[in-house]
Specification:
About 20% of the residues lie in helices and about 20% in strands. By secondary structure, the chain is α/β, with parallel strands linked by helices. The chain is globular, with a radius of gyration of 23 Å. Bound molecules: acarbose derived hexasaccharide. The site of acarbose derived hexasaccharide has 23 residues, from loops.
């Protein structure tokens, strides 16, 4: 039966938040490549202010690749090793702004700077000073002018309409491309006019992947993600805002399956996620702190048919600002995920969540490889349980509630026994049977008995 389970190469990313380059390289070889992640999104690679908080990475001092996460050589080595493992690198590009500290200082790699003065790169004339609010800060997101010409939390806002600024940014991005990165997350893209972003990325080689961060605001916000889809993809925040609360409340509703989902960008422009480094500290309904519910949310996303999913993996925190564990010089410590198979009951601050290593995630990547070309059929609800079929190729089911639930999902998959990809992971079929739970398809129905807070997934490649 495994031979029938042809595999596509699914487009699935993993955000490895604040993980040093040497560790990402190890992850590419040990886990990301073998599990079938096609790209990894890194934290910003350039020199930033020297502070312990994670968000120091979002205050560029310059574009030398020398940061708390590693040197230029470390970065280049990571890109090569990931590429050899079949994993593209998407770098987080902070190009909307420079630092936000009022006082002058010295960057992580020793470069002196002042607010609005970055020797060799930018001077006072290269920045917006909107004059619309105290301290030039954005206070009103319903004003396009404020959003795009005032400062995001005091960060020196580059005038991205200026030829010099554009050239300087393009030179930086070209440098990263010369090391082999496949593309960029464009940080704070909402705060740059879409025309400016388009002009900048238009200078990059064709095929460079661009994913813009444009947080979907309310209808009253004039700057919408749709403006940024002409030259790349965008993170679609409506997706986690829909999925997360459903999982959290164990009350599922089917998405609209015909065409693109309302209020969401077209599927081929959408990068979707359960949470990211901002939302796990903010609006996300479900994060690593929710353990099994987080597995359920990720399983549903990876089984779904809308957008390109990106899984998030960071470190545990109680203080929102706390950086990843670092040495005395501020360099973030390497971390290994060996032995991590699922969410822990509790975490110490700074402990890596290692989501990329979880058995269920590897299993769902295989599910996606086998089933993602098939239609996503209407879901079935049974109390707090919910599931759906990817027509003829896979079925996923979850129970987000507190009671045992039996759920039956009609399917055109061949009758037989299947090994569960959630508990059995990738290659869940073994000589003696299944690595994890066994489920049966009979009479056109897949039957699952699900304990509270568990998930199940079967696919053509997991038939016994
Ligand atoms: C730090 C300090 C500041 C200090 C500053 C300068 O915390 O106190 O002033 O340094 O010294 C990160 C951290 C910041 C940090 C910054 C620089 O999060 O704390 O500031 O680095 O070190 C907006 C942007 C969006 C941005 C987000 C944080 O549009 O681009 O704010 N995300 C990226 C990164 C992020 C990073 C930066 C940008 C800066 O991912 O990590 O900041 O490089 C509404 C708007 C959104 C807006 C949010 C937050 O969203 O729509 O556009 O995001 O508000 O202000 C509902 C609503 C939704 C709303 C959302 C809020 O869901 O529907 O509209 O809630 O969560």
């Amino acid at each position: 039966p495994q031979a029938a389970a042809q595999r596509a190469t699914p487009d699935v990313g993993i955000q490895l938040f604040q993980l040093p380059w040497s560790s990402i390289a190890d992850e590419c070889e040990a886990t990301l490549g073998p599990s079938g992640f096609s790209w990894v999104q890194t934290s910003p690679p350039n020199e930033s202010i020297a502070r312990d908080e994670w968000w120091a990475s979002y205050q560029p001092v310059g574009y030398d690749l020398d940061s708390r996460l590693g040197t230029r050589d470390d970065f280049a080595d990571m890109v090569m090793r990931c590429d050899a493992a079949g994993v593209d690198v998407i770098a987080d590009a902070v190009i909307n702004h420079m630092t936000g500290q009022d006082a002058a200082g010295t960057g992580f790699a020793g470069t002196p700077y002042a607010h609005y003065e970055y020797p060799g790169l930018y001077g006072a004339d290269d920045f917006h000073h909107c004059g619309l609010a105290q301290g030039d800060d954005i206070v009103d997101y319903t004003s396009r002018e404020q959003v795009q010409t005032c400062e995001l939390v005091n960060l020196a806002d580059l005038d991205t309409s200026s030829p010099h600024v554009r050239e300087t940014i393009v030179t930086y991005l070209d440098d990263l491309l010369s090391l082999g990165v496949a593309g960029f997350r464009i940080d704070a893209a909402k705060h740059m006019a879409a025309d400016d972003v388009q002009a900048i990325v238009g200078e990059l080689p064709e095929g460079t992947r661009i994913v813009s961060e444009v947080i979907r605001g309310g209808a009253r916000e004039p700057v919408q993600p749709e403006e940024y889809t002409g030259f790349g993809e965008v993170f679609e925040f409506s997706y986690p805002r829909d999925l997360g609360p459903q999982v959290q409340s164990a009350a599922f509703a089917d998405p609209v399956l015909e065409g693109d989902r309302p209020l969401l960008v077209p599927a081929d422009k959408a990068v979707v996620f359960v949470d990211n480094h901002d939302t796990e500290r903010g609006e996300a309904a479900v994060t690593y702190k929710d353990g099994p519910l987080y597995v359920i949310a990720n399983a549903l996303m990876l089984a779904d048919d809308y957008g390109t999913p990106v899984v998030f993996s960071g470190y545990a925190f109680t203080d929102r600002d706390a950086g990843a564990p670092a040495d005395a010089e501020g360099a973030v410590l390497p971390a290994s995920c060996e032995g991590a198979t699922g969410p822990a009951d509790s975490y110490l601050d700074g402990e890596r969540t290692c989501v990329q290593s979880w058995t269920a995630i590897a299993g769902m990547l295989e599910f996606r490889a086998v089933a993602s070309d098939a239609a996503r059929l209407r879901g079935v609800e049974a109390g707090s349980a919910y599931g759906f079929e990817r027509e003829g190729r896979g079925v996923v089911a979850v129970n987000a509630g507190d009671d045992d639930i039996a759920i039956e999902i009609p399917t055109s998959m061949p009758a037989g026994d299947y090994c569960d990809a959630i508990t059995g992971g990738r290659d869940a079929v073994i000589d003696s049977g299944c690595r994890g739970t066994t489920y049966t398809v009979a009479d056109g129905v897949a039957r699952f008995s699900l304990a509270p807070l568990t998930a199940a997934a079967i696919h053509l490649g997991s038939q016994r």
